[in-house]
Amino acid sequence: MLLFFFILFPLLLMGMFGYIYPQIPKSNPTTGSISTPYPNIPVSLIQMDDGKAAYAVAAQFIQISGQQGLFAVSESASYQAARDQLIQGNVKGIILIPEGFSDALAAGQPATVEVTVDETNPTLGSILQSEISAVFSIIGSSMSTQSIQRMAGDGVNPSFVMQPISVTGVPLISGVASSFQFLAPGFMALTVITGSLQGVATAIAREKEQGTMDGLLVSPIPHRSIIFGKVMAQTVRGLIQGFLILGLSMLVFGVQIYGSPIIMVVVMLLGTASFVGVGIIMTAIAPDQETAQMMTMILQFPMMFISGILFPIDQLPTWMQLIGKAMPLYYAADALRKVMILNATLTAIMPDVLILIIYTFLTMTAAIPLFERAMRR
Amino acid sequence: MSLQGSELASSLDGRAIETHGLTKRFGSLTAVDHIELSVRKGEIYGFLGPNGAGKSTAIRMLSTLLAPTSGTAKVDGYDVVRQANEVRKRIGLVSEKMIMYPRLTALENMMFFGSLYGMDRDKLRKRAEELIEMVKLTPFKDKLVGGFSSGMKQRVNVIRAILHDPAILFLDEPTTGLDPQSTQFVRDLVKELKQRGHTIVLTTHIMEEADELSDRVCIIDHAKIKAVETPQGLKDRYNTSSLLEVFLELTGRELRDSANERMPMRTPMGRM
Q1: For the CA atoms of chain A, what is the radius of gyration?
Q2: A288 CB contacts (<8 Å, ≥6 apart)?
Q3: For A228-270, how does the pLDDT look when each residue is reduced to its tens digit (9 = 90+)?
Q4: What's the whole-number average pLDDT of chain A?
Q5: Where are the domains of chain A?
Q6: Which of A39, A197, A239, A246 ranks highest by number of CB atoms within 10 Å?
């Protein structure tokens, strides 16, 4: 039952974050294609200029938007009317072709189009802005091409004049990197680490309540063997959970593995090991089981947000980044991501691996004597 | 089944258990106050006392589960603090909680706990089966222990404790809450174990049990020992045929009520 919750919750979270992850629309002005994460956004187009060019551009805008499924364009009589529509939420953006547009173009001068987007939704707003620019870029390109052909005849390649150097992105991986690809390793690391935080502590607590812990302590088995036994059980559990998340991610969200599963297992093992000690320490110093669970919760939630598994933490203020980078979750997720997406070798993720090893060493060194002391009081 | 080489002659001075000034303090509370215990080999030593007297704490110290605040204790000749592991090899514990895993069978439980003592697998299996037979649980040896009645569980609990043939056995209220048949069975088992040469420290509330089973009885109250004598000796001294009377005489008739303002501190890893 608990396992079910353990799997379902991360997947749910992954789903939520995956689907709301801001996607950058990709555009290619030369070929005239734009891919959008948000089809048919309602926008309002206002023509303040009566000139031929204005009409032509407006018509092209509507045509391209329709073709690419980008916008649902409606026309407004005035800026005020459009603004009201925007505030009401009926449209998400306003495109204004101002007076003097056609005259400027006719005179061989560049013209401006004014765009207003819904600033209450910054994500959508910035996507809208960039998509609108992209469409006008396409329109502009075809205008430039015509101009160049007019000026230089057939002997000149318009692309050479407009964009002598174009940049082609060469992806490291063959497939498409969706946001789920980014999230999945993070959630695997999260599952493994929170599991290790709670799992060992719970197992020990349960044995204590059951009375079997006494049976173990009264036998000649060294106490550290008891801890190691519990740790190993949790490690196996953690691996199974981690791979279950992976499997479900692959099935439901189309995540792919581009790297070595063996290295992934190694990283997950290190993730478990690094945090087991913390779990033991917390349970040893907490006055009761409930407090211990509360303490682990308090640690888990912020860790989830600032360790870079839901979103990259480079945008966070420096002090937050420092805290995030102090958690083993950051390194486990980072290593796992590199292996899964970029097919990193063990050597490539060595810094992460070393940090996890150091973490393991430090926390276990503190945990074992604390366990001893708690048991013999 | 004959004795299997338990080293009853391991200590030099012939005492199974010996304590000097054994004390345990929890913060400001003194649970056990400088007690001097002396348990002879092969005897059944009854440990009697009202609630909160310090019995369980004393047993936990002797069984190496709790570290004394001060004083020393030697079990089978070995110091409980400095030679704890040697002590553990030679003791068995039957505590108030059943020490067994509900989701394992009787035999699996026995095999698991036996393996903690480094016993050879085949020998262990044979001995486990013999002990299960001894307590008449053979038809249930492959059934999950979680489904057993409390009497059955206690029988498994006891044989688990003697798997490795310990010289000394600590029994903490072994018949409390059991049905009459199981109660009698356990008491007979205790007598049988004494016949086989085990030393037994028996904690109980049940006067007739202490009377019937103990060679000597130690009455403890308010962290101190009040008396150590044979049951008959105590009855003679206080001129009564009832051990209960002796007990009440020594410990008073007042009820020992207490309600802790503060719940006893309890980490999942140890009672504080």
Answers
A1: 29
A2: B263, B265, B266, B267, B268
A3: 888 888 888 888 888 888 888 888 877 888 888 889 898 888 8
A4: 83
A5: 32-157, 179-376
A6: A197
**Per-residue pLDDT tens for B167-215?**
999 999 999 889 899 899 999 999 999 999 999 999 988 888 999 999 9
ipTM for the predicted complex: 0.84
B29 touches chain A (CB under 8 A): no
Asked if the C-beta of A346 comes within 8 angstroms of chain B's C-beta atoms, the answer is no
CATH number of A32-157: 3.40.190
Q: Name the strand (E) or helix (H) holding B34.
A: strand B29-35
A282 touches chain B (CB under 8 A): no
Beta bridge partners of B266: B271
Other beta carbons within 10 angstroms of residue A48's beta carbon come to 14
Pairwise CB contact (< 8 Å): B88 & A286: no
A172: exposed, middle or buried (Cβ count in 10 Å: 0-12, 13-18, 19+): exposed
Of the partner residues A208, A218, A219, the one whose CB lies closest to the CB of residue B269: A208
At residue B12, the pLDDT reads: 47
Inspect the interface and report whether the beta carbons of B269 and A218 lie closer than 8 Å.
no
Q: What is the distance between the alpha carbons of residues B160 and B128, in angstroms, rounded to a whole number?
A: 8
pLDDT at A118 (0 to 100): 86
Cα radius of gyration rounded to whole Å, chain B: 19
Measured between CB atoms, does B140 come within 8 Å of chain A?
no
Structure tokens, A296: 């682990």
* Residue count of chain A: 377
